[in-house]
Amino acid sequence: MAIIMNGRQLADQLQDKLATEVNNWRAKGLRLPTLAVILVGDDPASHVYVKNKEKAVAKIGFHSIVKRLPKETTEAELLEQVQTYNLDQAIDGILVQLPLPEHIDEEKVLLAIDAKKDVDGFHPLNMGKLFIGKPDKIACTPYGIITLLKAYDIKIEGKQVVVVGRSNIVGKPMAQLMLMEHGTVTLTHSRTKNLQELTQTADILVVAIGRGELITADYVKPGAIVIDVGMNRNESGKLVGDVDFASVEPVASFITPVPGGVGPMTITMLMEQTMANGRLAHLEGE
Ligand code: GUN
């Protein structure tokens, strides 16, 4: 029987703290931060994610602007929109929702965002800073996972950490953050030959491979800590993670549920990094 890690509850607590801070700023007449979100096209999942971000900003009490652009938007038009937000002093954070339509070069767009306003942590400069061990803005999902582990007093130092999935958004920055916490890290992916053998060595197993319920109990060492980043729909339309919760929960010591585990923490880190820019602006005597 595992302890189920309640990301929803921790996210609510952290967001309540941010809301108190925003209230203090408002009482002092300080400018409240603004998060600008750009959403191109009509991917239904992306629209849901953006709505959730808007809701979180509203709950905490600062501002968001959501620019919804049609799927025919050209790369040049998108770059121009990014540049407008880069130059707007009232905007503290910029997020371009991914994936972008195929005709737009994602790397070019991420590179165009002012790295200081890159609250997603996807800009190559921020990725580079993270990988030399001097992080500034950090990709929100792995940042949220580290925050969740710390809240449950889970030590990473000296542990065998296995990350499944090597995306720029989760797997790679996750491996680096675990390394910075002195874990011994193995980064696995879809072409890994002996995946099961490797996952069985994990004291901490993070799964972000995008395959519904891939990780069953026979992939997990008894007593392991299992973090599930997956969000998939199974044949009956139910939201499931990359981990088969029913079979893994009895063998793990800690496990994150889907939903209510990692997801709420991701949004909270986005809020935190936007607020951090607001704090910085106040310190700079705005
Ligand atoms: N698409 C899926 N997850 C994310 C995220 O965290 N940030 C952005 N910008 N796009 C995403």
Automatic annotation (TrEMBL):
<dbReference type="Pfam" id="PF00763">
    <property type="entry name" value="THF_DHG_CYH"/>
</dbReference>
<keyword id="KW-0560">Oxidoreductase</keyword>
<keyword id="KW-0521">NADP</keyword>
<keyword id="KW-0378">Hydrolase</keyword>
<keyword id="KW-0554">One-carbon metabolism</keyword>
<dbReference type="GO" id="GO:0006164">
    <property type="term" value="P:purine nucleotide biosynthetic process"/>
</dbReference>
<dbReference type="GO" id="GO:0000105">
    <property type="term" value="P:L-histidine biosynthetic process"/>
</dbReference>
<dbReference type="InterPro" id="IPR046346">
    <property type="entry name" value="Aminoacid_DH-like_N_sf"/>
</dbReference>
<comment type="function">
    <text>Catalyzes the oxidation of 5,10-methylenetetrahydrofolate to 5,10-methenyltetrahydrofolate and then the hydrolysis of 5,10-methenyltetrahydrofolate to 10-formyltetrahydrofolate.</text>
</comment>
<comment type="similarity">
    <text>Belongs to the tetrahydrofolate dehydrogenase/cyclohydrolase family.</text>
</comment>
<dbReference type="GO" id="GO:0035999">
    <property type="term" value="P:tetrahydrofolate interconversion"/>
</dbReference>
<dbReference type="Pfam" id="PF02882">
    <property type="entry name" value="THF_DHG_CYH_C"/>
</dbReference>
<keyword id="KW-0511">Multifunctional enzyme</keyword>
<comment type="pathway">
    <text>One-carbon metabolism; tetrahydrofolate interconversion.</text>
</comment>
<dbReference type="InterPro" id="IPR036291">
    <property type="entry name" value="NAD(P)-bd_dom_sf"/>
</dbReference>
<feature type="binding site">
    <location>
        <begin position="165"/>
        <end position="167"/>
    </location>
    <ligand>
        <name>NADP(+)</name>
    </ligand>
</feature>
<dbReference type="GO" id="GO:0004488">
    <property type="term" value="F:methylenetetrahydrofolate dehydrogenase (NADP+) activity"/>
</dbReference>
<dbReference type="GO" id="GO:0004477">
    <property type="term" value="F:methenyltetrahydrofolate cyclohydrolase activity"/>
</dbReference>
<comment type="subunit">
    <text>Homodimer.</text>
</comment>
<keyword id="KW-0658">Purine biosynthesis</keyword>
<keyword id="KW-0028">Amino-acid biosynthesis</keyword>
<dbReference type="InterPro" id="IPR020630">
    <property type="entry name" value="THF_DH/CycHdrlase_cat_dom"/>
</dbReference>
<protein>
    <recommendedName>
        <fullName>Bifunctional protein FolD</fullName>
        <ecNumber>1.5.1.5</ecNumber>
        <ecNumber>3.5.4.9</ecNumber>
    </recommendedName>
</protein>
<feature type="domain" description="Tetrahydrofolate dehydrogenase/cyclohydrolase NAD(P)-binding">
    <location>
        <begin position="139"/>
        <end position="276"/>
    </location>
</feature>
<keyword id="KW-0486">Methionine biosynthesis</keyword>
<feature type="domain" description="Tetrahydrofolate dehydrogenase/cyclohydrolase catalytic">
    <location>
        <begin position="5"/>
        <end position="120"/>
    </location>
</feature>
<dbReference type="InterPro" id="IPR020867">
    <property type="entry name" value="THF_DH/CycHdrlase_CS"/>
</dbReference>
<keyword id="KW-0368">Histidine biosynthesis</keyword>
<dbReference type="InterPro" id="IPR000672">
    <property type="entry name" value="THF_DH/CycHdrlase"/>
</dbReference>
<dbReference type="InterPro" id="IPR020631">
    <property type="entry name" value="THF_DH/CycHdrlase_NAD-bd_dom"/>
</dbReference>
<dbReference type="GO" id="GO:0009086">
    <property type="term" value="P:methionine biosynthetic process"/>
</dbReference>
<dbReference type="GO" id="GO:0005829">
    <property type="term" value="C:cytosol"/>
</dbReference>
